[in-house]
């Protein structure tokens, strides 16, 4: 069986409650959690969308 490597984009969602100037702590945490998730599965992170 052939292993499949996925190219993925990470999508972080900013809640209206978290809005402020610059990136929120919530976005930074989401990005870190999702990057770890992607790495653990051996996938390729192509881009991050906010």
Please render the helix and strand layout as text.
Elements: E1 7-11, H1 25-40, E2 44-49
Parallel strand pairs: 1-2
Protein name: Resolvase/invertase-type recombinase catalytic domain-containing protein
InterPro entries: Resolvase-like_N_sf (IPR036162)
Organism: Eubacterium plexicaudatum ASF492
Number of H/I helices: 1
Strands ordered across the widest β-sheet: 1-2
Strand-pairing-aware structural class: alpha+beta
- In helices, the fraction of residues equals 25-40%
Taken from the alpha-carbon principal axes, the silhouette is: elongated
Nearest-angstrom radius of gyration? Answer: 13 Å
Ranges with pLDDT <50 over ≥5 residues? none
Structure description:
By secondary structure, the protein is an alpha+beta fold. It has one domain. Helices cover 32% and strands 22% of the residues. It has one helix at residues 25-40, and strands at 7-11, 44-49. The mean pLDDT is 87.
In a few lines, what is going on in this structure?
By secondary structure, the protein is α+β, with helices and mostly antiparallel strands. The chain is built from one helix and two strands. It has a two-stranded parallel sheet.
Task: Supply database-style keywords.
50 residues, alpha+beta, two-stranded parallel ribbon, 1 helix, 2 strands, elongated, DNA binding, Resolvase/invertase-type recombinase catalytic domain-containing protein
């Amino acid at each position: 069986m052939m292993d499949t490597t996925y190219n993925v984009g990470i999508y972080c969602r900013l809640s209206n409650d978290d809005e402020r100037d610059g990136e929120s702590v919530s976005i930074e945490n989401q990005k870190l959690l999702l990057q770890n998730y992607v790495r653990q599965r051996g996938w390729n992170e192509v881009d991050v969308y906010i």
